[in-house]
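Archive entry. Fields below.
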Amino acid sequence: MCEKQEKGKMKVVETIKEMKEMSNRLSFEGKSVGLVPTMGALHEGHLSLVRASVNENDVTIVSIFVNPMQFGQGEDFDQYPRTLQEDMEKLLPLNTDVVFAPAMDIIYPEGFNTHIEVRKLSDKLCGAFRPVHFGGVATVVTKLFNITKPAKAYFGLKDYQQTLIIKKMVKDLNMDVEVITCPTIREKDGLAMSSRNKYLTSEERKDALLINKALTKVKRGIEEGSISTDKASEKLREILCTGSHITDIQYASAYDPETLEEINGKSFVGRSILLAIALKAGKTRLIDNISVNLNR
Amino acid sequence: MCEKQEKGKMKVVETIKEMKEMSNRLSFEGKSVGLVPTMGALHEGHLSLVRASVNENDVTIVSIFVNPMQFGQGEDFDQYPRTLQEDMEKLLPLNTDVVFAPAMDIIYPEGFNTHIEVRKLSDKLCGAFRPVHFGGVATVVTKLFNITKPAKAYFGLKDYQQTLIIKKMVKDLNMDVEVITCPTIREKDGLAMSSRNKYLTSEERKDALLINKALTKVKRGIEEGSISTDKASEKLREILCTGSHITDIQYASAYDPETLEEINGKSFVGRSILLAIALKAGKTRLIDNISVNLNR
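PREDICTED_STRUCTURE:
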């Protein structure tokens, strides 16, 4: 405890009471709080959010909490990487002010029973395959907002659907938080950074590169006019299917970036569309997406 | 609009933007806000909440909004009494500071889709007969909390289950609101005040008195030891059934005041129990409850 309580100027908070006292004090002092909610196992994607927050707010709080409510039965909650010490070493040089790292029973004490659901948006794409996922995300994010009282909260666009759902929840429930989205950060070879990339064997990782390859190739095709949007799914799958370790393509197509409805020949000229993919490489579920601009 | 914009010092606010600006300003000035959420058609029950709030806070906001989300299909949303002008005349002499009276599409703009659910507690008692009710209550109360930022919010114990659900939601979601419950206010003849009493014919109203009669008689019996708690339901129903306009007894029994589980011979010595009733007098649904102290 002592060891991690203070690291330079970075404070580690483990209880809701202490975190609330701090956020109330900051609010009283007129200091703006930026929140970066994470499940730890931090990579450059997370760190880009932290940098944005440090840049735009008086105080940056990074929460680290592997949220059981957003994992379904048979998903990887138990094996999800927990690397608190390394995470803190990555956060310290970025001038993170506070790491909020509560234990599970602090966030979900016995008898916890309140659930937030953003309907419609939560049923689409990942939601169709992970039925409890976005309800768990919405619920824990609301708790984190109430505990840390951020003016701004930062989310990466790799989890595009998540950003859309959180924005919708904030709007619907009249929360006083500005949801800031930041670009997907990729490895040099194009693979979108994800804490789950650690699960991949080197063979699986090679095939995982097909995701970004498919997205960028079909994006270019659509923008150049050589691929029509209603052929997007077919073209994405053609590329993905060349990977022998791609075991389950859950979705791969062109979607309305606001409703997440699949685009079937509808006119999107003058707007943007979303190409999005979820699949399994071996047993590891990976997602990625890219925005296609049809302003031509 | 002009006519109701200012009544003495009482301000009427109709938009979320204006209400939020005001509550943010009050918060900045360090003034405590008390919120009394209502659906209008105000009676002495509501006014007792307003008096409590005025007494305990710098500023009292009374919200008046007939919340469609808490009415099920076939319930009385359309005919629910709307008496804004009379309501304001009742609120003015109590030194109410603000009436927040938004239109429906202000609270639920097109595409609204976020829902809060307090599981388990919401399935019991009234929830078993009104499956969407408490989700609608939890959702609108969350919105009102986010819009008005109260330090304290006031609810009447006539809606006992509602108070329990809101307290649970506040705890589970780490909201910064103290939920204050106030006693049920009754007519001189014992009928619990309710905006729905207006629906009753004089014959139905006579029979409705059996509710309080049953509750007080069985309470006395239990406290004196002449009625055992597992006979509570039978004894309540015996009395209620003497009313020819009592058409549907939805529940009438003794319950654990924390879990709302029916008490079936369990020992509650040293604790309190809840006697609660829901029934229809004619077509009008009425509820009431009373606390029984077993400290003997």
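CURATOR_NOTE: The interface with chain B takes residues 16, 20, 24, 112-121, 138-139, 142-143, 146-147, 168-169, 172-176 of chain A (CB under 8 Å).
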